Amino acid sequence: MSKMKRVFHIVSHFDVGGAERVAVIIAKSPNPQIEYHVVELIRARSPFTRVFISEMRQTGIRYHRFCVPDVHFHYLFERLAACLFPLWFAVLYWRYRPNVVHSHTEMPDLAVCLFFRLFPRCLRRCKVVRTIHSSRLWEGLHATGRRVEAFMQRCRANVAISDSVQENYLHAYGECAPIIHNGIAPVEQQPYPHLRADRQNILFAGRFEPEKGIDTLVRIIQSLSDDARYHFHLFGDGSLRKEAEKALEHCSNVTFRPALFGIARYMQSFQYMLMPSEFEGLSILSIEASFNGLPVIINNCPGLRDTLPPDWPLKVNDNALSQYTDLFQSILPSVNRAEICALAFRYADFHFGIQQMWSGYEAIYLA
Hints:
By secondary structure, the chain is an alpha/beta fold. 39% of the residues lie in helices and 16% in strands. α3 (76-96) crosses α4.
């Protein structure tokens, strides 16, 4: 019997985030040949951190937390964490001797790169794996990004999560990374208690940041403020939340909520989910919606269109407000919701089953 492999996933923080969810989903694999650990680079302190840690404890995933706090200030604390990480991680490394270090998102990528540059001999017995989660990397940190990408390519570490991510990485950095799609499983549903019974309830859940299409989201809700058929429930936080609240303060068709950890278990309570993102890597949220019976209205952008069938009827191009208006006023009232739910589920089940993600990564770990 082969010796057990130890795999360390390095993530940005223990909080709401697609990359963090992917790391934990991989680490939930029941494979007895692998012992999983999850390492936090920047110490989060939100209400979801406790839930995140509790989930790992319940499933037997070991975890480790660095000491740099989660403070958002021009990437200062993120870069500080990445630069200090090698000295702290060296102690962890020599204690556990991981066979694989698997990084997720840019700051963990930088931290892993710096660690192995400082301790290059560790590469003799440790494999580096790096999941590329975004179709746009290193915005504002291009010089740093070039150095990290050169390291990842030398280690043959890269794995893309979608066709769009693969194509963009090839264009930007000249390497065609293999693809392992993110895997999801349906979750047991429970009712969401704050719905509007007299309207169709539309869900938005995500960070209030420009790439999530917040400006478009606001314009859609404003344009439908006199339409009594729909009510929008907006879950999340971010730099644009206060701006969005101010823009919609006179609209009666919208409710703002804090981010909700484990929102997938409430998805069947809503009629549709709205995702006007400018770009995604491969949206875990969209895939979760398809697995849990919630049709998604999307902007036809990289990372979203990859999650749904090519003939998906609930999509618009270039976040065009006129197309959203037509969709809400003409298409949704006539669409067969049960039929498109089944269509989305079949597509997600074929392309994004959790077993194929486990098998794909573990073939790399165990090679």
